[in-house]
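Hi,

Apologies if this is the wrong queue. I'm a grad student, and the batch job for Golgi SNAP receptor complex member 1 from Tortispora caseinolytica NRRL Y-17796 produced an output file that my downstream script rejects. I'm not sure whether the problem is my script or the file. Here is the sequence I used:
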Amino acid sequence: MSFSVVRSELRQNETRTDELLAQLATRQSVDDALCREVDEILNASSAQISQLERLAASEPQTSREHVVQRHKEIMEEHQLQLRSLVAKLTQDQQRRQLLSSVKAEAEAYRSGSGSGGHTEAAEAEYMLHERGRIDNSLNMTDRILAQAYETRDEFDRQTSVLANVQRRVFQSASQVPGINVLISKINTRRKRDSLILSAIVTACFLMLWFFA
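Support response: The file is valid. Your script probably expects a header line. Output copied below for reference.
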């Protein structure tokens, strides 16, 4: 298949994608069927772009390279537009559901609080209660985050202090004449004492076992 034929089919897919995205933008919620159709066309467009790249490579021309690059940009724009529309429609749908839920709760609360002059007062009280609950949740979140940051900073500070102390100890030890020899003798003596203690314990165990 020639370069021009593949490009013609690709442009048809791009036009169809524009039409479907325009339809999706008019929806009140995510249309799964439209989204699937757009995905299928985008996959076909991606395959066609790969085919154009191979044809352009077989007959290198600067104009063809520009054409392929432009089709890539159009496909990326379509992918971004699809993701944006889906995110927006999902957010709008969730917002409507939340408002509907709040309205239902307000209606239930208002019905339970009587009618007439008490209706507005009950609704205002309910809204103040909800606002207070949200404020408390936000304040609690802020406190938790602040404590987490303080704990992290304290760990970092302690780690830095321990590293400095360890570095200074090693530096001081290296500057004292004979310190390495002294430390070696101490370690040797500890090992010797450990061996003697182990031998004594073993001998006692053997004596107890022998005379038992």
